[in-house]
Amino acid sequence: MTALEAYATDNDELYAPAGRTGDCVVSALDHQLEWYYENTYPTRRAPSVDPWGRPYHIVISNSRKLYALYSLGPDGKLEEIAEQFLESLKQDQLRAGDLKERQTSRNVIVVPGNLRFAPAEVLRPLGPSR
Question: pTM of the predicted model, to two decimals?
Answer without folding.
Answer: 0.76
